[in-house]
Specification:
Number of domains: 3
Bound molecules: adenosine monophosphate
Helix content: 25-40%
Strand content: 15-25%
Distance between the termini: 61 Å
Number of strands: 18
CATH class of the largest domain: Alpha Beta
Oligomer: single chain
Largest sheet: 7 strands, parallel
CATH superfamily of the largest domain: P-loop containing nucleotide triphosphate hydrolases
Radius of gyration: 24 Å
Length: 454
């Protein structure tokens, strides 16, 4: 029998039957490694990305333990966003199809708190939600974790990005000590390991082989005269209209020049290179990551350590020194199963060693271009003169925007909190409204200065 078949696990027949019905035949790598310890009630910290089957890994674990006859909250799953919480609930519901009378609920911010309290009168068995809202319910005694068996922290790396670690720690404070804690994260920076050390006990560390599937990247090569590089770059933007793109060039000053040349042509671009101060580097990366800037011009050195989750396109404005640099540069796109595009500009014989079947050598003339093309990022960043030292949290900013200011949550993007300042991405069409409302209003009962980052 296939050693990775679900039937090697001691799962109830009804669960095996359901998995079979769902078409889950064999376990994915993260399931095969994490399910045995999860079913043994061990704490597990696992490296897993979206698409790895991690939701089923913890979902099967928590459902197998659940006692439906006990009308108490037994499992809590913390997710960084409402969208993710909705996906997790869907998957758990699918897995629970053969568990009658099970009550699963979502508790996220941006929804009516009172309605949530109302629907918790019949206590759910499983809650999936975002840390801020869960904490609010705990603080106000509308939720109790006294019977909690399983706590799951999903996408811990994004929780970290969004500044939720403090909230998670506060939630844990309410949870009983003899619980099982499962933590899933795509990356393992020190902060995640510290979190694991404080909230888990003898956690079993699961690392599946990364990049099992090669990144789906289409590689184009265009021969251009060095004088025509800038105009070709603009044609490439106009033709492909990427949501975000990193343009690699060979020297620090050159990256700055390219960004300035593009700005003069109504294309917003920022440069990142070794001459920037740390805070300038942070500003640039933050704006690129929160989609307030779509074009980043980088040198190889400056791009080191840069981790952008969904990068649509990489352009080699200057040929890389060698093939390994090429592979490294283009490997930043095509992540998480999403298709990426890698474009290389070359002249003369520069690209000879790159010629093979999978690469497409095209002519610049083949690009279809609208002459009046301008390129603007989808978001604009608001800066708030208050940060961690003022005890400002992402939920406070989101609350101020979606509450009194009346901005729908879907217009609010990534929120980054630093010591003395916070940055929030707002969809471009709503930026003036968000700015004037925040300027008039208060955050956590206090007034903060606000401005638009240009
Ligand atoms: P996730 O990484 O949890 O977002 O899961 C990715 C997708 O894989 C979901 O649509 C699941 O329904 C599906 N899935 C999870 N486990 C399996 C499995 N063992 N076999 C086939 N599909 C699966």
């Amino acid at each position: 029998m296939n050693p990775n078949h679900f039937s090697i696990l001691s799962l109830p027949q009804s669960m095996l039957h359901n998995l079979n019905n769902l078409g889950y035949e064999t376990m994915t790598p993260v399931q095969a490694q994490s399910l045995p310890p999860i079913l043994q009630n061990e704490d597990v910290i696992a490296q897993a990305k979206t698409g790895s089957g991690k939701t089923a890994a913890f979902g099967i674990g928590l459902l197998t333990k659940l006692d439906v006859k006990k009308n108490k909250l037994q499992s809590l799953v913390l997710c960084p966003t409402r969208e993710l919480a909705d996906q997790v609930v869907k998957e758990i519901r699918r897995l629970a199809r053969f568990t009658p009378n099970i009550k699963i609920m979502t508790l996220c911010g941006g929804m009516s708190y009172r309605k949530q309290v109302e629907s918790m009168r019949h206590e759910p068995h499983v809650i999936v939600g975002t840390p801020g809202r869960i904490l609010k319910h705990l603080d106000k005694n509308s939720l109790s974790l006294e019977a909690l068996d399983t706590l799951v922290i999903d996408e811990a790396h994004r929780m970290l990005d969004m500044g939720f670690i403090e909230e998670i720690n506060k939630v844990i404070y309410y949870a009983p000590a003899n619980r099982q804690t499962l933590l899933f994260s795509a990356t393992f920076p020190d902060e995640i390991m510290e979190l694991s050390a404080t909230i888990q006990e003898d956690a079993i560390n699961i690392q599946t082989i990364d990049d099992e599937l090669p990144n789906p990247i289409t590689e184009y090569f265009y021969e251009v005269d060095p004088d025509a590089k800038l105009s070709t770059l603009i044609k490439l933007f106009a033709h492909h209209r990427p949501e975000n793109v990193i343009v690699f060039c060979k020297a620090k000053l050159r990256s700055q020049e390219i960004a300035e040349d593009l700005n003069r042509k109504s294309i917003e671009a920022l440069a990142i290179h070794g001459n920037l101060e740390q805070y300038e580097r942070t500003d640039v990366l933050m704006q690129f990551a929160n989609r307030s800037c779509s074009v980043l011009i980088a040198t190889d050195v400056a791009a080191r350590g840069l981790d952008i989750k969904e990068l649509e396109m990489v352009i080699n404005y200057d040929m890389p020194h060698d093939q390994s640099t090429y592979t490294h540069r283009i490997g930043r796109t095509g992540r998480a199963g999403k298709e990426g595009i890698a474009i290389t500009l070359y002249s003369g014989y520069e690209a000879d060693e790159y010629r093979n079947d999978i690469r497409l050598f095209e002519a610049v003339d083949s690009l279809s271009v609208n002459k009046r093309f301008t390129f603007k990022s989808p978001n604009v960043t608001l800066v708030i003169e208050g940060g961690k030292k003022n005890k400002v949290r992402p939920g406070d900013i989101l609350g101020a925007l979606t509450g009194d200011a009346g901005i729908a949550g879907k217009y609010v993007g990534k929120i980054d909190i630093y010591d003395h300042q916070s940055y929030v991405a707002i969809e471009r069409s709503m930026i003036d409204e968000a700015y004037s409302q925040l300027k008039k209003g208060k955050i956590k009962g206090r007034k903060f200065s606000v401005w638009i980052l240009k």
